[in-house]
Amino acid sequence: xxxxxxxxxxxxSEELFxxxxxxxxxxxxxxxxxxxAVVHEEGLNFDRDLSWYKTQSGCYxxxxxxxxxxxxxxxxxxxxxxxxRIQAKAPQVxxxxxxxxxxxxxxxxxxxxxxxxxxxxxxxxSSSLKDQLKDSFSRNNGPIWRDSSTGADCEAMERECGGAQxxxxxxxxxxxxxFTGSQIRKMARTSPQILDKTERISLVSSxxxxxxxxxxxxxxxxxxxxxxxxxxxxxxxxxxxxASCFPxxxxxxxxxxxxxxxxxxxxxxQVSSYFVSKYGLNPKCVVVASTGDNPSTIAGLQVEKAGxxxxxxxxxxxxxxxxxLDQCKPSGEEGNILRNPIDPNTCMAMLCYKxxxxxxxxxxxxxxxxxxxxxxxxxxxxxxxxxxxxAYHYKEAEITPRFNSTAVFRFDANDRxxxxxxxxxxxxxxxxxxxxxxxxxxxxxxxxxxxxxxxATGGASVNPALLQVMASVFNCPVYxxxxxxxxxxxGASYRAxxxxxxxxxxxxxxxxxxxxxxxxxxxxxxxxxxxKAGDARVYDQxxxxxxxxxxxxLSVLPVAK
Length: 561
Ligand code: XUL
Fold this sequence. Notes:
Number of strands: 27
Radius of gyration: 24 Å
Oligomer: single chain
Bound molecules: D-xylulose
């Protein structure tokens, strides 16, 4: 590929695709060509560039330590600012944009007031989005993913809908505090007057699409999985969860406020004339349904084949894995299953770990290894399996597996607890092995049976010693991606292209694979490590002991709710 494809006209080969990413901290975008070449990138930071909102890290964290919100109008003002910057720097770019899509921080919700749809449809280029929409929200500050104020609502949802496993079986996840369903439930209990005034509930992602469209855009099936409201398999709102999340009101009313669920690749319509007149956006530009930032990361890395796994190693670690729809196993204990935004036949399993780089750093310091080079040397000089020693580091209370305390557990080769390991090498190696074995174990619990490839991202993915251990634990090659820092925005631009290309072929519940639309070279994967056969065998064996000792460790303390 990379040339005109059989069905592509030369005008189409000139087209550009705009991907927006409204993350917690700011709004970014990537503009790319039909062959995946990035032609423009732009970004702004909410705290710095929209300082008058007085957000900290893009949000308002309240004194109760639980409630975290962000001003919805800030997202709209940021969009004007970002497009203004592109127009000022590269005016020719926007005129060629054939499709736009967006990625948004997952779970965050936006409450449009009565009449907002009319305002969206009649946006005037002579004024700003902020001035025209500032009174369009029934709730000015919407809850975001960092909010954890809905514990009681989650308990009620699980009680009413067949327990944690019951909720997971329907929606892909047990009831989570940051998920939108429990947030709506809390509002129905505590501030029903806001819901009375609400015409439409959007997610941050679908709000962006709504602005671009000048009308309400649907919530896509992938981001909808972060709400605990959608039937994962049916791709429609679940009557059971709707009823549970709208106590004292009708499920039908909530369904109307949520609007339809769309395939992630759905073309929602043409861009609002506001953006055409104001920024010179191509009047034929279409808006493709937007999705969440984790699904968009999957798109940005073009992870569309079952068995491919992304391991992001940052302050916290995240695992994203593609699992066929009929094989995924939603868990009432851990993790999330979401629809894959780039393939209707698969899902993405997601695991979040709090004990990521902070814990690796702590292990290095505790082992008196001054530098990462010293850590790597100690690790590399210790054989795979650390002579049978196993370690479980919970410097932070852990999400996967749920562990509601802080502790370190060390075991010798005979499963006997130890206060300390015999040497630094075992301390270093067992910690890293433990992290990766946990990922392999728990992602398997969600239905991933065979792993073909791991793509490592995040700060710690520059460490070759870690990647070598990862390759042997997962028993597959490990790659890093050169996709750049804006993977979610890039994913949105890929999805804009995929949505339009699939639409042109008349596809509705099917999609053209990205691999067929984009040249292989756009993927920019670099092989970093291959499994060592002997080491991989050691880990296959060790994994069973790792799992049974983990169960023992978890029985020591009550599990977090
Ligand atoms: C995922 C989650 C976060 C947000 C960050 O469930 O809560 O990763 O998506 O934007």
